[in-house]
Amino acid sequence: MTEHETDYPEIREEVAKLCARFPGAYWRELDKVRAYPTDFVNALTEAGYLSALIPEEFGGSGLPLSAAAAILETIQKAGCNGGACHAQMYIMGTILRHGSPEMKQAYLPRIASGALRLQAFGVTEPGSGTDTTALRTTAVRDGDDFVINGQKIWTSRAEHSDLMLLLARTTPRDQTHKKTDGLSTILVDMREAVGNGLTIKPIRTMMNHNSCEVFFDALRVPARNLVGEEGKGFRYILDGMNAERLLIAAECIGDGLWFTEKSVRYAKERQVFGRPIGQNQGVAFPIARSYAQLQAARLMVREGCRRYESGQNAGEHSNMAKMLAAEASWACAEACVQTHGGFGFAEDFDIERKFRETRLYQVAPISTNLVLAYVAEHVLGMPRSY
Ligand SMILES: Cc1cc2nc3c(=O)[nH]c(=O)nc-3n(C[C@H](O)[C@H](O)[C@H](O)COP(=O)(O)OP(=O)(O)OC[C@H]3O[C@@H](n4cnc5c(N)ncnc54)[C@H](O)[C@@H]3O)c2cc1C
Asked: What is the DSSP letter of 35?
């Protein structure tokens, strides 16, 4: 397989070396029991990759978004799963952009060193998925604290995080002009909170993603943990979405490259009717087509990163990159299963595991329909659908 020139070759090489220490067998064992890849995450943390986007003054490497995208793409391309820790890269952006100087000093250096894990992002609720502003979790000021009540769902990595960035309503909906007002971002220290008003319950899903339900029952959080201004949390969350979408898109590209490499190798090796199956265009073309889709999506990821890094509006390209990359990785996955025939379903080949893992990205962190709604309304100027 030929590959287009790649950026950050040294980073890619080092990340690939690290990933080689965590082969398919490592992930298969964890997958069976839905366990967290602690050793893998520790290795990435120690090597400094999860703090790539934290500025050097706070102990990170201060790299641009495209470098973080290269790291995640390489992880996925190696058959590993960055979903276990990717949020550590982008959630801290809310603190970086909107936190007070004291908050940044208090948290960012320790997040950069790995002493504190900021892996949990509490936005989605059972009654409000896509419709974020309908969320019902409340944070009510009481003296020097916020008192938090409510529930989140699909809070990934909650059991393996020290901190959670929580989006909660601080002003009742009927007292705000707009439904996007009155929501605030609050940093919850989960180490102190579990058992004192915070309960975490894992949800078993079709892939090993460590997603949880989180219940808040009069949890007290110091008011100083408010990130930025009260009531502006929804805007802060939106601010971080382009980076999140581009990084997830990069992961999809990595997945697609992993599937394609597997497909090509097997199509050349596997002999049926006395010749390699890849000689049949019915086998080769789906692999070639999905690879073409993947490379087109990859260009969109790069353009999104370029815009983001140059301070231009990256909304259109980040959304499109996320959608195209998720669809392309799924097409590569589908071609890979089909190419492998029965072995596509055998656990030891890792294909069925990666197949389950890459399916997620058409739903989370944003579903394809909502990307299309964004493009229809905000890019093409058609009427708002919801
Ligand atoms: C494994 C996993 C990990 C996750 N991790 C996190 C996390 O760490 N933190 C967090 O906050 N959330 C997380 N999520 C939640 C994720 O962001 C939501 O699942 C996603 O945004 C969709 O919301 P929903 O599941 O409530 O679907 P719904 O909003 O109920 O939507 C269901 C379907 O209807 C479609 N739909 C809804 N409204 C419209 C419309 N107006 N037009 C067209 N189609 C529409 C959607 O596209 C979707 O396909 C995770 C989810 C999963 C499955």
From this structure: -
Distance 122 CA to ligand 1 centre (A): 13
Q: Give the model confidence (pLDDT) of 40-66 as tens digits.
A: 999 999 999 999 999 999 999 999 999
Q: How many helices (H) and strands (E) does the chain have?
A: 13, 10
Report strand pairing: 163-169 vs 118-122.
Answer: parallel
Question: Distance from the CA of 123 to the center of ligand 1, in angstroms?
Answer: 11
Atom nearest to 158 CA in ligand 1:
8
Q: How confident is the model at residue 262 (pLDDT cuts 50, 70, 90)?
A: very high
Q: Report CA(374)–ligand 1 centroid distance (Å).
A: 15
At 129, is the pLDDT very low, low, confident or very high (cuts 50, 70, 90)?
Answer: confident
CB-ligand 1 contact for 95 (6 Å cutoff): no
Q: Is the CB of 43 under 6 A from ligand 1?
A: no
Tell me which residue of 262, 240, 230, 249 sits closest to 364, measured CA to CA.
Answer: 249
CB of 128 sitting under 6 A from ligand 1:
no
| Alpha-carbon distances of 299 from 128, 149, 197, 296, rounded to whole Å | 33, 43, 46, 5
Of 19, 10, 54, the residue nearest 254 (C-alpha):
19
